[in-house]
Amino acid sequence: MIEPKPAIQPEQSGESASKPALAKKKRRFGGTTAQIRSALKFYKVMAYLTGTMLLLLCAELVARYVFGVYLFAGGTNAITGQPFGFGFTDAESKSVLGGVNVSITVLIVHGWMYVIYLISNFRLWSLMRWPFLKLVLLALGGVVPLMSFIVEKKFHSEVEMELAAHPQASKRY
To answer: How far apart are CA 37 and CA 43, in angstroms?
Structure first.
């Protein structure tokens, strides 16, 4: 008669002490090491750019809602007819004709950078085959001030650790 074997084999005491916690688990990545490093670099650049734009956006929102001013570049002063240059003007009045509303430009640029930032998050998340919660944490980095810098540092070191701990996990061919 055939003896049934348990589904989980008991560990031998010598093996568990010598292997680190990350190396015990079988790990497969969604791409090669070069693809993961490329995605990591793209994510890092976008995290810093998006974080910087988010800080500018916060400064713009404070200027608009606390002080009631917009930041303008160029144009003509509507009252005096003189060239405006660069500076703040009242949010309610139309005191600058022409020119570029830098406050609105910051809003638009941050919005599109956040979209590209989300693409970089998805690329890194899918190549690393992380759980969905990590994608949510990555995405929050672009909407919470200063969080993109903190999250980028944490996930960058985590990716480097996982790549070092599982050198064979990215071999695809």
So the answer is: 10
Kindly state the helix (H) or strand (E) to which residue 173 belongs, with its residue range: none
9 and 132 Cβ atoms separated by less than 8 Å: no
Inter-residue contact 75 to 106 (CB < 8 Å):
no
CB 83 within 8 A of CB 76: yes
| Cβ atoms of 70 and 94 closer than 8 Å | no
Residues 45-92 pLDDT 10s? 999 999 999 999 999 999 888 988 888 888 777 777 777 777 777 766
What angle, rounded to 10 degrees, do the helices at 102-128 and 147-165 form?
20
Of 145, 138, 140, which Cα lies nearest the Cα of 122?
Answer: 138
pTM: 0.76
What b/e string do you get for 2-39 counting C-beta neighbours within 10 Å, with b at 16 or more? eeeeeeeeeeeeeeeeeeeeeeeeebebbbeeeebbeb
Assign 22 to helix, strand or coil: helix
Structure tokens at 169: 């996990």
Residue of 111, 121, 106 whose CA lies nearest to 47: 121
Q: Residue 32: which of 154, 165, 163 has the closest Cα? A: 163
Beta bridge partners of 72: 87, 101
